[in-house]
Amino acid sequence: MTDVKNELNNEAEIKQRLHELALAKKTAAAKSSRVQIKAMAEVHELSTDELDSLKILHAGMQNRQVLNAFRELRVKLLQKSKGENFICLVSSLCERGGGGSYVATNLAAAFALDKTKTSVLVDCDLYAPSIDTMLNIDASHGITDYLDDDELDVQDIIYASGVPRMRVVPIGSNRERGAEHFSSERMSEFIAAMKARYSDRFIVIDAPPILNSAETRILADLCDMAVLVLPYGKTTMEQVQAGVDVVDKSKLAGIVFNN
Ligand SMILES: Nc1ncnc2c1ncn2[C@@H]1O[C@H](COP(=O)(O)OP(=O)(O)OP(=O)(O)O)[C@@H](O)[C@H]1O
Ligand SMILES: [Mg+2]
Question: Which of 9, 187, 249, 258 could form an S-S bond across to 99 if both were Cys, CB 3.0 to 4.6 Å?
Fold first, then answer.
């Protein structure tokens, strides 16, 4: 009787072991295919026409005013950080569609224009993510997956953007938990890891509009600096004041007038 029981236990153990092995194999295969996808994406560099249609700045663009504005913003932020790398939150001061993602993307692109620097644009807008539309790959993992899955490494959620030296972290597929995502210890770890790994890496967070967004309040606390985007003619003074009040005064790096 005992032997039969042992045998049964063994059989159960073997089954369990086989299951674990199959799972490990599956994870390894998924990981290696992700690495391959990322390696392929690295090859496709966006053409100047593609950049123009995506409204992403580039050194040879016709509209020098836009290019210079973002270069100036880059200089100002670097002055504020005394040349150190940083994490900068970008958020707009109106309800929706104020240009927050436009400014965040172009700020990241402006850092990447400098050949001695790299940038990472992190999509933290759970409700209106923007990076996915820019990526021409199926980004299976993003920040929300990373925050819930300890098995995922920072490297697993960073994708090539098609802009040299600029990387992106998409929002991912696991968006139900809302603001709770960003208040986790793992989010603080992510922020610290992103900044610490390369001293020439500048991180831009594309956050939801600052008014009435619990996520943006949490993210503003985690970032080193914040840039607020003021869409011309779409915001009242009260809204501007309310938005400015959310950000710690020492972190507010500037307000960009978006026309
Ligand atoms: N300065 C600009 N020049 C050209 N297009 C712009 C400019 N600012 C914003 N846009 C365009 O306006 C639209 C809305 O801008 P964007 O998505 O950046 O706003 P947002 O604040 O991120 O909106 P959401 O609240 O949905 O996240 C986009 O199509 C964007 O490309
Ligand atoms: Mg946006």
Answer: 258
CA of 100 to the centre of ligand 2 (A): 5
CA–CA gap between residue 147 and residue 153 (Å, rounded): 10
User: What's the average pLDDT block by block, 10 residues per block, for the chain (259 residues)?
Assistant: 47 64 55 45 79 95 97 97 96 91 97 96 94 75 94 94 95 86 93 91 97 92 97 91 94 94
Please report, for the chain, the start and end positions of each structural domain, with discontinuous segments joined by +: 1-43, 46-258
Ligand 1 and 70: CB distance under 6 A: no
The structure's pTM equals: 0.85
**Domain 46-258, CATH:** 3.40.50.300
- Give Cβ neighbours of residue 19 (< 8 Å, ≥ 6 apart): none
Verify whether ligand 1 is closer than 6 Å to residue 96 (CB atom): yes
